């Protein structure tokens, strides 16, 4: 990608992000960040964290959901109220369409099926359970001190975010501030679950490039420790060196679980 290109922040997503093309490119189970590896890795990690039922509570917030729901599938049955969110109107519209079973909504059945195979559940039950528990789809901006301004959300037991912060934050200071904002959404002792890309500077949706903040494991860990979070798991899936890097130049994907300190 051209080094002259400005970092594509939220406003660029609002104008140019094609939610349906994104879902098709990355989550149709036949293409993706790294064929099926990315998705399989992430779904397995999320399933391992949540399917024991060890983590549960009243409220779960997914920050920067895009048009997608995979990030909350394993967790959803353990939280009574779920908030999905994104900066871009189009993404929130696609989520609403799916929640309301509208005719031309995105098809998440293959991904529901994958999660259900891992967890021995029925896709129709899991889908109904998630739809029942999602209470809101809200606009958020992770660059704000309160990402949900002007709303103040009740403290969450769990915050999940997947592939959002490195796409939304143009530099490491903004990334650290955004993580601080996410941490403030959590109750003391609350759980932060993150999925992200390492070493990535761009990805493309169809032919349109979007910027990413190039991060390494140390950057992420330092940002979390700087906020006083304890890191419980940090899992990494290295990218396949042989893959075509014209769609995205990520070096690895990570999944982590961290906990906010108790007061
Ligand atoms: C790569 S997509 C990830 C979407 C989804 N979480 C996933 O895992 O597929 C990045 C998302 O970040 C959102 N985003 C960009 N800037 C943002 C901001 N300032 N605040 C919140 N979300 C933002 C975009 O609209 C987009 O949905």
Order of secondary-structure elements: HHEHEEHHHEEHHEEEHEE
Mean pLDDT: 95
Write down how many β-strands occur, each being a DSSP E stretch of 2 or more residues.
10
> What percentage of amino acids are in beta strands?
25-35%
Bound molecules: S-adenosylmethionine
Radius of gyration: 17 Å
Intertermini distance: 45 Å
Low-pLDDT parts are: 30-35
CATH class designation: Alpha Beta
What is the correct CATH architecture? 3-Layer(aba) Sandwich
Binding site for S-adenosyl-L-methionine: 22, 27, 64-65, 70, 86, 91, 141-142
Family: Belongs to the class I-like SAM-binding methyltransferase superfamily. NNMT/PNMT/TEMT family.
GO biological process, one term: methylation
GO molecular function, one term: S-adenosylmethionine-dependent methyltransferase activity
Q: What are the salient characteristics of this protein?
A:
263 residues, alpha/beta, Rossmann fold, 7-stranded mixed sheet, two-stranded antiparallel sheet, 9 helices, 10 strands, globular, binds S-adenosylmethionine
Describe this structure in words.
GO terms for molecular function: N-methyltransferase activity; S-adenosylmethionine-dependent methyltransferase activity. Keywords: Methyltransferase, S-adenosyl-L-methionine, Transferase. One of its GO terms (cellular component) is cytosol. S-adenosyl-L-methionine binds at residues 22, 27, 64-65, 70, 86, 91, 141-142. The chain has 263 residues and is of the alpha/beta class. It has one domain (10-259): 3-Layer(aba) Sandwich (Rossmann fold), CATH 3.40.50.150. Helices cover 34% and strands 27% of the residues. It has helices at 10-16, 19-27, 37-50, 89-99, 109-119, 123-133, 165-168, 172-184, 217-226, and strands at residues 33-36, 57-63, 79-86, 134-139, 156-162, 186-198, 202-205, 208-211, 230-238, 252-259. The strands form 2 sheets. A 7-stranded mixed β-sheet has the order 4-3-2-5-6-10-9, with helices on both faces. Strands 7-8 form a two-stranded antiparallel sheet. Helix 3 (37-50) packs across helix 5 (109-119) and helix 5 packs across helix 6 (123-133). The protein is globular. The N and C termini lie far apart (45 Å). Residues 30-35 have low confidence and may be disordered. The protein binds S-adenosylmethionine. S-adenosylmethionine (SAM) is lined by residues 10, 13, 17, 64-66, 68, 71, 86-88, 91, 140-143, 162-164, 167-168.
């Amino acid at each position: 990608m051209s080094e002259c290109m400005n970092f594509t922040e939220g406003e660029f997503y609002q104008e140019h992000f094609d939610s349906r093309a994104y879902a098709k490119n990355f989550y149709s189970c036949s293409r993706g960040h790294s064929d099926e590896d990315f998705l399989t890795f992430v779904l397995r990690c999320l399933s391992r964290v949540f399917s024991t039922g060890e983590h549960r509570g009243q409220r779960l917030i997914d920050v920067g959901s895009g048009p997608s729901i995979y990030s909350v599938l394993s967790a959803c049955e353990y939280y009574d109220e779920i908030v999905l969110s994104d900066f871009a109107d189009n993404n929130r519209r696609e989520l609403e369409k799916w929640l309301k079973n509208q005719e031309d909504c995105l098809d998440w059945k293959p991904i529901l099926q994958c999660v259900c195979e891992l967890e021995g559940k029925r896709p129709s039950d899991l889908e109904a359970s998630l739809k029942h528990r999602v209470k809101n789809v809200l606009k958020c901006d992770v660059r704000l001190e309160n990402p949900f301004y002007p709303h103040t959300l009740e403290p969450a037991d769990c915050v999940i975010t997947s592939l959002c912060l490195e796409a939304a934050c143009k530099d490491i200071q903004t990334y650290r501030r955004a993580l601080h904002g996410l941490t403030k959404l959590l109750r003391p002792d609350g759980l932060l679950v993150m999925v992200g890309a390492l070493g990535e500077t761009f990805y493309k949706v169809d032919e349109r490039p979007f910027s990413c903040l190039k991060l390494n494991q140390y950057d992420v860990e330092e940002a979390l420790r700087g906020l006083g979070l304890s890191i419980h798991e940090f899992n990494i899936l290295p990218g396949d060196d042989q893959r075509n890097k014209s769609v995205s130049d990520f070096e690895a994907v990570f999944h982590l679980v961290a906990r906010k300190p108790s007061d």
